Amino acid sequence: MNEVPIAKVRSNQIGIVITLLIAIIAQMPWLIAIVWLIQVMTRLLGSGANTFVIILEPIAQKIYGKKETEAAELQKFNLSLGITFLSISLICLSLNWITASYIVAGLMGLAALSALMGYCIGCTIYYQYKKYQALRKNIKSQ
Fold it and tell me: Beta strand pairing status for 3-5 and 69-71?
């Protein structure tokens, strides 16, 4: 199974939290688009294309170390969830639903903050999804 260094994961989460917090407080919706672009580029090209990782990974390595890792499959799932939330936020912006956009972006930021604090909401959703898939497969094979 492929693994991703925890410092890369945490540096991305830190970048998301800080940028979305600034976007919401300063009412700068274009920052949401920048976070979305960074996440999409990461999904397409890998963590080497992530500006947050490039800038913050050296700091994150000092805090979280270099050895600990997380499953790449789980990180891809979480990245896809994040892109979905940011896309919904941008769609709301395009419809001029500014408050809704900030709420959705705020939920994304809270999920990243929660992961930094030790509880990964995306991981819980992933676990339930895999459990559901296994149950469906088990029922079909009977």
Answer: antiparallel
